[in-house]
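Marked as duplicate of an earlier ticket. Keeping the data here for the record.
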Amino acid sequence: MAKRIRDTDYLSISTRVRAMETGLLSRDKMEQILEARSREDIAKILQEAGYPDLDPERPEEMDAALARIREEKLLDLSDGAPDPALFDIFKIPYDYHNIKSILKADAMGMDPARMLSDLGRVPAREIREAVQSGAYDSLPGKLPIAIAEAKEALDTTRDPQICDIIADRWSFEDLYQSAEQSGSAFLLNYIKIRVDAVNLKALIRTLRMGKNADFLRGVLMDGGEIDVNSILNISANGGNNILDLYNPTAFKQAAEVGADALKSGGALTEFEKLCDDAVTDYLNQSSLIPFGEAPVIAYLAARETEYANLRILLMGRNAGLSPEIIKSRLRAV
């Protein structure tokens, strides 16, 4: 049963988040990082934004530093929130990342330790022990079903891609259930638009690979606003009428670019960016909401986008990519 959220319960934390928003990296700040002459100049910009020195030549250390910052922000805000469970949507993906890593590593006789994250609802060690002992029924949400299905598929097919598909599908089932139980319409609609973005990406990718609608059905997620059967019909028709389905939605521009890429055989980089930007456009609606859970959720989602953009910026510079290419990959802020 969904909880009843009172926006006045979030008055204090909303006010705090509004102040914290000013510390987010603006587009101008990101361009300063892009145009900086030296690592020292980049480090100064990052320090002003509350980040440590991030070295793209040591990507594992950089990712570990970003993970620590992510965890600190989550803990900081959840401690002051009326219902810390509201932030489970930012933790659930790490639980599923862990089960994928554990199952695939076990199948290959490898140690998954370096791939695991403690940013989920459950410590990685506990998930690993549960998977290896077979006693995973006590794990939260959809994790027990996901582990059982993904493990059986991996044992049967030895195909890690199928393992990932099953885990990702249950991850979104878990996200949807968590959002529904939260009582937040803003959060639930955020998950729905994320599902729509994932499904559009899956449609374009499977059409590009020449996969049929049956394959696509195994990849698509339930819970979005855009009807899954309509997406499957587009696939069965070879991509025809894709714009008829997506033109009335937030994904109009992304669908147009995706359809053009299918015809030309061009890269899908811009298409995937536009899918993500449509989700950001939804989150930007929180700027019109004075207080409540919406500004808090939007802030944490904005931080996730910021971490991704920082990685794109720093790794792109280190790889010698042109500023134009790097800019084209940055997600909307």
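See parent ticket for discussion. The chain has 16 helices and no strands.
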